[in-house]
Automatic annotation (TrEMBL):
Molecular function as annotated in GO: ABC-type quaternary ammonium compound transporting activity; ATP binding; ATP hydrolysis activity
SMART domains registered for this protein in UniProt: AAA
Record EC number: 7.6.2.9
Keyword list, A-Z: ATP-binding, Nucleotide-binding, Transport
Xref: InterPro entries: AAA+_ATPase (IPR003593), ABC_transporter-like_ATP-bd (IPR003439), ABC_transporter-like_CS (IPR017871), ABC_transporter_ATP-bind (IPR050166), P-loop_NTPase (IPR027417)
Enzyme class: translocase
Domain ABC transporter span(s) in chain numbering: 2-235
Name of the protein in its database record: ABC-type quaternary amine transporter
Length: 278
């Protein structure tokens, strides 16, 4: 359904050219939950922005149902790490905003928005303003605002990255419930291995310099997922091993020639934020 063909991206200015992505090829099935996982700076967000139509690839193309992506569209909606709600609108009006722009009749739009806010457990907060909500609640509004547009693909750029651990775990469960209920295709950017394994059907692991796909893993575990599922734990360790090699490579490049890098110098914790690893 979604095909990424030979996508490369170079950011250049007068002084230098930075190759961020090289020859990315990927196919995403309808109703599939995939994660783009990799260390900070490997180009995950850039690829997501290219799929969203917010950036143009230097080379290659993204197709959805055979149509080339030429710019942003309501078939692909993005949820960012910062919920980016309109502070002057209440929760209900934030969710109604996109529907109004689509020209959907007011009564129908309200029914849809309220139903979506019920799905994310915010029915009691329809008339609250963003500053009155917790970070987790704001992300729920952002998810409702995206889903109410009924996109073909939901794009999520580290949506839970700024939340505390407990809220994050709660939202993992809620997002999985939404995924099972709506059967949406979801592309999820993260540098948290445990999060990727917990949520995805397939994990695309990126390496850096330039950003490229180094390996893909299918997640074989029943849904709803159980945190102590041995398949998940085993997969976390396999991915951590793979990424440790990648992180060591970058660290060696960055540090002095004489620096000797010990294998165990990177803490063995799949829940660790890989962004701080290099
Ligand atoms: N508009 C831009 N102009 C120039 N360089 C950019 C631009 N956007 C991103 N970059 C650079 O491209 C590289 C990849 O950035 P990107 O945000 O895609 O990585 P990422 O894997 O999502 O990282 P993180 O996990 O830290 O968000 C970085 O070196 C970044 O500085």
């Amino acid at each position: 359904m979604l095909k990424i063909r030979n996508v490369s991206k170079i950011f250049s200015d007068k002084k230098q050219a930075l190759q961020v992505l090289t020859k990315i090829g990927l196919e995403v099935r309808e109703g599939e939950f995939i994660s783009l996982l990799g260390p900070s700076g490997c180009g995950k967000s850039t690829l997501l922005n290219i799929i969203a139509g917010l950036e143009k690839p230097t080379e290659g193309q993204v197709n959805i149902n055979g149509q080339a992506v030429a710019g942003p569209g309501t078939d692909r909606v993005v949820v960012f790490q910062d919920a980016a709600l309109f502070p002057w609108l209440n929760v209900l009006d934030n969710v109604l905003f996109g529907l109004k722009r689509l020209g959907i009749e007011k009564k129908e739009a309200k029914i849809k928005a309220k139903a979506m806010l019920k799905t994310v457990h915010l029915s009691k907060f329809l008339y609250s303003y963003p500053h009155e909500l917790s970070g987790g609640m704001r992300q729920r509004v952002a998810i409702a605002r995206a889903l109410v547009m009924d996109p073909q693909v939901l794009l999520m750029d580290e949506p839970f990255g700024a939340l505390d651990e407990q809220t994050r775990m709660m939202l993992h469960k809620e997002l999985e419930d939404i995924f099972l209920e709506t059967k949406k295709t979801i592309i999820f950017v993260t540098h948290n291995i445990r999060e990727a394994v917990r949520l995805s059907d397939r994990i695309i692991v990126f390496g850096t310099r330039p950003g490229r796909v180094i390996k893909q893993f299918s997640v074989h575990a029943t849904r709803p997922r159980q945190a102590n599922d041995s398949n998940l734990v085993h997969l976390e360790n396999r991915i951590m091993e793979l990424l440790q090699v990648e992180i060591e490579k970058v660290a060696k490049e960055e540090l002095d020639d004489g620096y000797s890098f010990s294998k165990d110098s990177i803490p063995w914790d799949p829940d660790r934020d890989l962004g701080s690893g290099i």
